């Protein structure tokens, strides 16, 4: 039986026995028909059961590469692969042959989303804002944390893991030693404004902190956790009317994005962020390119 007739039988089974929704059947028709059309060109003839059973992983990867070349997103390619896998399972149930290559092939990996940075003014506002509801020392603490995220590019966990002895304070130009993911250490420079923010917090903190105690503590003196930092950021975001993506981690994204926009070297940003791979840091080039395109569309006379 040729591929087109096999597809009709598969779709009839989906809509009849499986009671799939009409939209699902339509999507599967498009995806599997596209697959069979590719194979007709790839193999030089319309595939039948025997040809479908003989397909190897290389043939299926060639099809996925064809979809990628057409501009299909990883999610769309994964959906198409799921439809084709279902088609092969149907063939195995209705006389074969089985094709293990389809089941063994991994789904296309979805790219991590491009980080969303805050506007420079919004990021600075977070580091300088004074909460009308929080106690003065708590507001100072939150500003100091925000200053470390935006001014030094720390992760939330990295900032909260600092001890009192490690506090970057005015009068010193030493870099801050940070313990990052996987236990890797890096040394980052600390701006004077960040040092002053940390000093302002310590001057107001009501708890006596020993050198080995956590630098950032809650109202009872225990180590602050990430959930509390996120909750404080939500409250501040609402009070200041900031966008929904104004999160603690967005401050770190903003640190990298604004450095890149200012002409910083990508390798230097990688070192500052503690990324093991340059490809992770390269996501910020997409942010900067998108920003430049937005400026171009807004200001260029021919845009």
Automatic annotation (TrEMBL):
Keyword match DNA-binding: yes
Domain of life: Bacteria
Location of the active site: 155, 181, 249, 252, 275, 284 (o-(3'-phospho-dna)-tyrosine intermediate)
Keyword set, alphabetical order: Cell cycle, Cell division, Chromosome partition, Cytoplasm, DNA integration, DNA recombination, DNA-binding
Domain Core-binding (CB): 1-92
GO cellular component: cytoplasm
GO molecular function terms noted in the UniProt entry: DNA binding; tyrosine-based site-specific recombinase activity
Subcellular localization(s) per the UniProt record: Cytoplasm
Domain Tyr recombinase per the UniProt entry, residue ranges: 113-297
Pfam families referenced in this protein's UniProt entry, alphabetically: Phage_int_SAM_1 (PF02899), Phage_integrase (PF00589)
Entries under HAMAP family matching the protein: Recomb_XerC_XerD
Family affiliation: Belongs to the 'phage' integrase family. XerC subfamily.
Cited function: Site-specific tyrosine recombinase, which acts by catalyzing the cutting and rejoining of the recombining DNA molecules. The XerC-XerD complex is essential to convert dimers of the bacterial chromosome into monomers to permit their segregation at cell division. It also contributes to the segregational stability of plasmids.
Known partners and oligomeric status: Forms a cyclic heterotetrameric complex composed of two molecules of XerC and two molecules of XerD.
Protein name: Tyrosine recombinase XerC
Species the sequence originates in: Elioraea tepida
Gene label: xerC
């Amino acid at each position: 039986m040729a591929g087109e007739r096999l597809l009709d039988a598969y779709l009839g089974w989906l809509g009849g026995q499986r009671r799939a929704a009409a939209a699902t059947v339509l999507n599967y028709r498009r995806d599997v028909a596209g697959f069979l059309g590719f194979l007709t060109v790839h193999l030089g003839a319309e595939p039948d059961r025997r040809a479908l059973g003989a397909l190897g992983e290389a043939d299926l990867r060639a099809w996925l590469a064809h979809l990628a070349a057409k501009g299909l997103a990883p999610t769309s390619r994964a959906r198409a692969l799921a439809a084709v896998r279902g088609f092969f399972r149907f063939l195995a149930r209705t006389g074969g042959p089985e094709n293990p290559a389809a089941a063994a092939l991994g789904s296309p990996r979805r790219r991590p989303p491009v980080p969303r940075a805050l506007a420079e003014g919004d990021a600075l506002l977070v580091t300088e804002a004074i909460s009308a509801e929080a106690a003065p020392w708590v507001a100072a603490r939150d500003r100091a944390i925000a200053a470390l995220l935006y001014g030094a590019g720390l992760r939330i966990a990295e900032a909260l893991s600092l001890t009192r002895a490690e506090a970057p304070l005015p009068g010193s130009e030493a870099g801050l030693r940070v313990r990052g993911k996987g236990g890797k250490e890096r040394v980052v420079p600390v701006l004077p404004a960040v040092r002053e923010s940390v000093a302002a917090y310590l001057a107001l903190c009501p708890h006596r902190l020993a050198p080995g105690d956590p630098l950032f503590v809650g109202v009872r003196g225990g180590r602050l956790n990430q959930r509390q930092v996120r909750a404080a950021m939500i409250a501040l975001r609402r009070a200041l009317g900031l966008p929904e993506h104004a999160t603690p981690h967005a401050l770190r994204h903003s640190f990298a994005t604004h450095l890149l926009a200012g002409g910083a070297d990508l390798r230097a940003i990688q070192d500052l962020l503690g990324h093991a791979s340059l490809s992770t840091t390269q996501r910020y080039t997409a942010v900067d390119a998108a920003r430049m395109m937005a400026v171009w569309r807004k200001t260029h006379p021919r845009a």
